[in-house]
Write a structure and sequence with these properties.
It contains four helices and no strands. It is an all-alpha fold and about 120 residues long. The relative contact order is 0.17.
Length: about 120
């Protein structure tokens, strides 16, 4: 399927994507005043934190947390722009591209995870 050294990175990626889900749900919950988005938000938060913790079993904390936050930050901006009509300036897009390059650089420079 995939090398065992990739498993923590897959968990970390899914955790980051769930961070995007809970950030979006948080916006949609209107400060936890709407039930369905509030439930989605809390569920996604718990799952995201759990998967982050599982990835941190083998990946360094600093790398894991930075990648998780980066995926969430970039994903939240993309969702905001595409689905919520939020404006992204060219300078903001450049900064997001630098975050993406940083995430890729961290992955490429990380030592292989122990299984």
């Amino acid at each position: 399927m995939y090398p065992s050294s990739m498993k923590p990175w897959i968990l970390l990626t899914v955790a980051g994507l769930l961070e995007v889900v809970w950030a979006t749900g948080l916006k949609q919950s209107k400060g936890f005043t709407k039930l369905a988005p509030s439930v989605v938000t809390v569920t996604a938060m718990l799952a995201s934190f759990y998967l982050l913790a599982m990835a941190m079993r083998t990946l360094p904390m600093g790398i894991s947390y930075t990648v998780w936050v980066g995926i969430g930050a970039v994903g939240a901006v993309v969702v905001g722009a595409v689905f919520l009509g939020e404006r992204v300036t060219p300078l903001q897009a450049l900064c997001l591209a630098m975050i993406i390059l940083g995430i890729v650089g961290l992955k490429l420079s990380a030592a292989p995870a122990s299984a």
